[in-house]
Input
Amino acid sequence: MLFRSRDFFPFGTECGYVVVENSCKYKIPVNYPGSIIVEHCLAMPLGNSSFEVIYRFLSSKGEVHAEGNAKMVCLDLQKNKPIRIPEKLRLHFAAL
Output
């Protein structure tokens, strides 16, 4: 989840994030010792307060080991309630 944290870090004081749905489909095992590369992108369109991140887990040879997604919701950190995706974050996403 390092990639997600790095992408959203500049906006951490404006809102928080929570995973509300998550899924993963495993295709082939990763053998020990092994490493994976995680690719991710945003699914469009964005919701009012939510967005979806799509993941692919690849070997260094490009084999797809798993595919998944996470639905994220922006939160007001003080009230712990969903809020609209801040405009600054929408513009950031549009630039990705």
In short: The chain has a mean pLDDT of 85.
